[in-house]
Amino acid sequence: MSPPLVLSLPLPIKKLGRWVGFATNVGDCFTWKILTDNTNQIIYCSAIRRAESTLPNLCVNPSAGESSQTSLPDTIFVRSKSDHADVSPEPSSPPMHTISFDDLIGRTFLCPPENNGEQLCARVIKQVIDLDKSNQARKDNVQFLFRKDKSTADKLISYNQLMDYIQQDSQAQTQGDLLFKFRAITAHQGPLESSDPHYRGSKYNVLVEWETGETTYEPLSLIANDDPITCAVYGKKHGLLDEPGWKHLKRYTKTSKRLIRAAKQSRIKQTRHSVKYQFGFQIPPNYKEAVDLDNKNGNTKWQDAVELELLQISSYETFKDHGKAKWENGKVTNAPPGYQKIRVHLVFAVKHDGRHKARLVADGHLTKEPFETIYSGVVSICNLRITIFLAELNTLELWGADIGNAYLEALTEEKIFIIAGPEFKELEGHILIKYKALYGLKSSGARWHDRLFDVLSEMGFSPSKADPDIWLKKAPDGSCYDYMAVYVDDLAIASKNPEAICTILKQKYKFKIKGDGPIDFHLGCQYKRDPDGTLVADPRKYVKKMIDTYERIFGSKPKKAKPPLPPGYHP
Hints:
11 helices; about 575 residues; alpha+beta; 32 strands; about 25% strand
């Protein structure tokens, strides 16, 4: 709770209140949410001052903030209780994840550029033991056969070299990003004759930059047939549209507005239909291709991921088996009355450490709009920061936690059923009635929100008046409050004993808590401490992801913005 404040109301009246947050949608940028002492209600106010005058007015005597001066101040201002003048943070790089030999089979990596400028991807085929190095460490004994995309010959690479390439590829990706096959055309060759060694059936070759990072020369006729808009944009930029092989693309550039619109539509089409990669692994779009990829790689990683997902679905009793479906004229004749038939599909992904994941998702767009509310709020980033600030101010432990398969903890109110596909094995072709909330349904978020509301209320937590997704209760010793900021299934817990809170959620309510411990990565932001103990929020991965998305959509880097406040300003 903040210290008492004096409110300067429109009339010459001053009232006591407490600062509880920023007014994001009311007033200017210095309008606050204030909890008044006399009414116990939230009001919005921009004219406030401290009720206690123990601290100096920083507007009169600024001691921090931005400064245009290059000289260092004479006074060292303490940032934490362990701050020292001679402390200088040392940069650190994240550790490389260890990947087992078997997990490397089928993985792709980007090879160094060739002499002609091409940069190809290679796929690991199998593991080879070097018997001549049997007296050395096991990792030094192992080599791998790999094959480049345009080659029929296999080559050898050591484990350490392979891990270096994989680490470079991983650092070039944002955690969780999907990489799409086609990105841009960066150069061209031609005109070429049939006797030219670079001739590939077209008078021009274009250097295509793929989203896997590789660059290859491809015949213009082949690329233009697949994506004429991108070729037309490149040809217009380089004055090639009057040359043989390019002339038929000129019709796409008659008006600039039409060209820009078509280019954007082309990017969307590439995103939807192109082959996808994630951390060196090809991502299957459906269960059939997942099985094909497993057969190609000689393992069952994708099928194991699907089996694990459906095992968890079964353990939550998500579906109720209604027996084998009977069909007549394309319709199910023994469907439960009053229930709507929808589809489900699997979404595949690879984690940064190489783990293969699958998620069963309902096609919620096929369902009718529920009568009851489907709204489900989440904590705002601003109020999450206030929670973290309160944890540091009161020397509380700050933990992060994730509730696994959160939606499956809640019951659904929608009357729907599915016909099980081949991924359900022995249940294939059965009518499965939906009993629990599932990712993809319109009401699942609201039903999970209701379930968590009941659990936290039973534990003694109450929603904050400033943000209903920040929960608080008095600590057992009464010395402070415990806080919990909720973002769907991601929890940020500030308490003197956050482990006890997680234990109750696990043991009493049977939630499958994952990643519980001191907060290090939460909602796209990394958290770490300086050598002096100061907690640092580092959202550079999130920012990089936004910049990459902007560049992919608009084709250029965003402009740098200047801060709105002058240097040295301190409110």
